[in-house]
């Protein structure tokens, strides 16, 4: 029933980790995966090559997010990765074109991704290999980020482009607005 080859034996612990993770709450799942204690990781989120992931404190990873850390992935503190978001650090396009798309192909290209601190990646965003997203950036839902994103800006679209830049005064005024609104809630 089970294959007894190198690849199967390497993948089986990852499969078991995913299975066990379904029965844990967000904090338990984070601890089980060796993530910082302040991390909240929702069910069905997947980390490929977790040993290549550097994750800051107070991060949130949504349901069905896939974090491919095979090429190296760094995510800064207080960053949220939305539901169904895909972060890629590898590409097999050349292996496909050369008819060499097999496990261990030397045509699979791996390139690190860096996501800054205080970022918000909206649901179903796609982050391509080699991208750096600056600190305090917002990626709108369903955006495809194929090039670097500067600090303190909002990007959206496919391909994502800058729509707004945030200065500290703007962020402070928005924080005051939201706190005042929340204070009025029952």
Give a structural overview:
By secondary structure, this protein is of the alpha/beta class. The chain has one domain (43-183): 3 Solenoid (UDP N-Acetylglucosamine Acyltransferase, domain 1). Helices cover 24% and strands 26% of the residues. It is built from four helices and 18 strands. The chain has helices at 6-21, 26-32, 93-97, 168-183, and strands at residues 40-41, 46-48, 53-55, 60-61, 66-68, 73-75, 80-81, 86-87, 90-91, 109-110, 113-115, 120-121, 126-127, 132-133, 138-139, 144-145, 153-157, 160-165. It has a seven-stranded mixed β-sheet with strand order 1-4-7-12-15-17-18. The radius of gyration is 18 Å and the shape is globular. It starts with 5 loop residues before the first helix and ends with a helix.
Descriptive key words:
alpha/beta; five-stranded parallel beta sheet; UDP N-Acetylglucosamine Acyltransferase, domain 1; globular; 4 helices; 186 residues
Compact description:
InterPro entries: Hexapep, Hexapeptide_acetyltransf, Trimer_LpxA-like_sf. Belongs to the transferase hexapeptide repeat family. Helix content is 24%, strand content 26%.
Number of helices in the DSSP assignment: 4
SS class? alpha/beta
CATH architecture: 3 Solenoid
- Report, as a whole number of angstroms, the end-to-end distance: 57 Å
The average pLDDT value, as a whole number, equals: 94
Whole-number tally of structural domains: 1
- State the helical fraction: 10-25%
Radius of gyration: 18 Å
Largest sheet: 7 strands, mixed
Q: What is the 3D shape?
A: globular
**Percent of sequence in beta strands:** 25-35%
Strand order of the largest sheet: 1-4-7-12-15-17-18
* CATH fold naming: UDP N-Acetylglucosamine Acyltransferase, domain 1
pLDDT under 50 segments (min length 5)?
A: none
Organism: Amycolatopsis alkalitolerans
GO molecular function: O-acyltransferase activity
Keywords: Acyltransferase, Transferase
Family: Belongs to the transferase hexapeptide repeat family.
